Amino acid sequence: MKQLQGSPWLLAHRSMLKPNQPMKVSLLGNDYVLWQDSHGTISALPNACPHMGAMLSEGWCVNKPDGSSGIACPFHGLEFDRSGCTVLPGSNKQTKSLLQPLELIVQGDFIWSYGGYEQKIPIPSIMNEIAAEYEFIGVTGERSLPTDILSLLLNMHDYNHQNGTHRELFEIAEVQLKKFIDEGLHSHAYLSQPRKQPKWRDILKNPGQLAMPKVLEAHLENFFPFMGLLHGEDKLLSLKECHFYLPEAENQSRVFVLMYMKAHSAIAHLLKGNLLKLIDVVVEQDANILSKIYANTPQGIKLNNEVGMDWVRRNFNSFPTVVEPNLSR
């Protein structure tokens, strides 16, 4: 897992953490237990108990008199505080730290980490800006996928796969890449995607399609390697669909989507739940196809509109340095 060390990774949104309930997260080949106490303080420790390796995420939170909380091992009930110290049975003396805490950067509701590595690129401010201006709808599409991070990123930046992977969902007739702006580890893609007219049975099955116009004008903003952002504009609403990617291990990746909205009509509020369901279906379709590819197959065919995939490959091979070519068009 050496290629992408120094990138920030969004581990979770605060809403994904229930108070005093541990959550397992994996990053760059290591497992951690993440939890939030009653004061909203968020902590993370390696997930293996230093006694016999039990998963601390399968344990429970222990509330302290000062309102803070530690984590208890499910095997023998050993309690560890947020610094990784414990008190052994029969002893009133606290041990030194036995678990090295994972350094977190908590910005409002966003829980970031560099996975214990030196920062190579900064956390962008855009999520804080979106949270300040838009209504948070919810989290959707969270999946752990049996695929390497490069394959996941290539799929997420493949502007042609709507015609195959998502053909029944969006009925895209054509993908037109209008512009691609290459700014190194940051890029913008502007797509125009005429749709076939959905049938009534499709609308009844997923009313979220009512929010989709006949031509999908998409502005995709990409932050390599951890985030892709869809800026959606419609007469009913403005949408920010924020996709996050994490390398859990060599051949295991995780994805989840944070959804934000600015309503231009009262009808938009009725579509929140359906929008979350719609994107969950999109991620499920991507997950399904990624589980059925031969990732190391040499590419013998090149389609049009593959500039996003070229951008991923270049940045993956040279990270964190940005090398030529500039792929703007």
Automatic annotation (TrEMBL):
<keyword id="KW-0408">Iron</keyword>
<feature type="domain" description="Rieske">
    <location>
        <begin position="9"/>
        <end position="113"/>
    </location>
</feature>
<dbReference type="GO" id="GO:0004497">
    <property type="term" value="F:monooxygenase activity"/>
</dbReference>
<dbReference type="InterPro" id="IPR050584">
    <property type="entry name" value="Cholesterol_7-desaturase"/>
</dbReference>
<dbReference type="InterPro" id="IPR017941">
    <property type="entry name" value="Rieske_2Fe-2S"/>
</dbReference>
<dbReference type="InterPro" id="IPR036922">
    <property type="entry name" value="Rieske_2Fe-2S_sf"/>
</dbReference>
<dbReference type="Pfam" id="PF00355">
    <property type="entry name" value="Rieske"/>
</dbReference>
<keyword id="KW-0411">Iron-sulfur</keyword>
<keyword id="KW-0001">2Fe-2S</keyword>
<keyword id="KW-0479">Metal-binding</keyword>
<dbReference type="GO" id="GO:0016705">
    <property type="term" value="F:oxidoreductase activity, acting on paired donors, with incorporation or reduction of molecular oxygen"/>
</dbReference>
<dbReference type="GO" id="GO:0051537">
    <property type="term" value="F:2 iron, 2 sulfur cluster binding"/>
</dbReference>
<protein>
    <submittedName>
        <fullName>Rieske 2Fe-2S domain protein, putative</fullName>
    </submittedName>
</protein>
<dbReference type="GO" id="GO:0046872">
    <property type="term" value="F:metal ion binding"/>
</dbReference>
